[in-house]
Amino acid sequence: MIPLFEHFPTLAEKLAYVSLGNFPTPAPRLERLGGELGIDRLYVKQDSLSARVYGGNKIRKLEFLVGKALQQHAGEILTFGYAGSNHALATAVCAEQVGLRGISMLLPQPNAHYVRRNLLMGLHCRAELHQRANVATLAAETVQQLLGHKLTTGTFPLIVPPGGSSPVGTIGYVNAAFELKEQILAGELPAPDRIYVALGSLGTAAGLVLGLKAAGLATRVVPVAIVHPSMAGKASLLRLARRTNALLRKLDPSFPSVELAGNEVEIRYEFFGHRYAGFTEEGMAAVSRMYDGEGIKLDGTYTGKTLAALMRDAGDARITGETVLFWNTYNGRDLSAVTDTIDYRKLPACFHRYFEEDVQSLDTSA
Ligand SMILES: *Cc1c(COP(=O)(O)O)cnc(C)c1O
Q1: What residues does 327 pair with on adjacent strands?
Q2: What global pTM score does this model have?
Q3: Second CATH level (architecture) for the domain 3-57+167-328
């Protein structure tokens, strides 16, 4: 039984849910990196290990989203992302696990090794991959796909928004906060003063902000924007948290009504760089620091930029003496056993350029 359902049994009856991962994820202390940074109590929440085949933060959301697809008897799940989208891949992997199929509507992005890996893994999981030129034509192309799939399969695919960040998906991170509370009560780690987490489509941070308060924890969430600031506003984050709160209360009125004040969340915008998935010097320095100190692999698009924020705050002595939790949202499973065996020319031709062109210069990790 997941922690949220233990606290609110009515939700267990009302919410579609399918177990897709391994929870709780570990939350060990980072002794060496913490020592170097002058943060005695530095911990990591390893959502990187959230599932056996492909981990990362999207699994928690997909347990509710795929649950909904099964409940609605959809045969396919259509979602959106950039070419190397961790979310689109996680959706395809999870869909396949329960006998469904993922359809990915993908936009162009800067090239990187992980883009190649994720595309090949998507192919391996039978995902239908479509490259779309830009956001302007995406809606029309999506409608076309939906109608086409309805004609051939008889049912519409379930549509999942980018990043899985609907209120239903966001519940995954409300549950994660209750999971963390259980680990604190079990003495695995002290209650954190701050959680550093990457901010993309908002669901992870919004779910944590709501869930921590509902679980009675005073932890401050520090979301680090890795998308353009115009897409990661505080008002949008709080709106998603409130909509998720309203959904939970509609299903179970005993779920608390949480007051969310804007000054409790400080979104960081200084680590984004120039564009989405454009790696930064500071972000890649953080990736190396984590790997050298703790043997944990981070990425240049999300978690490296997030750790860079934590490291800069440590350098400015802003968080010394605090208990700090770094929420690792990046997949930690090695895909090479599968991806090394696949010829990229089996992908739709529009994706070949990611294999034929160089990766961006800061992407040194293979
Ligand atoms: C999607 C993603 C995020 C961002 O989570 P959101 O809920 O979209 O804000 C962070 N880290 C990684 C590795 C991701 O793939």
Answers
A1: 45
A2: 0.98
A3: 3-Layer(aba) Sandwich (3.40)
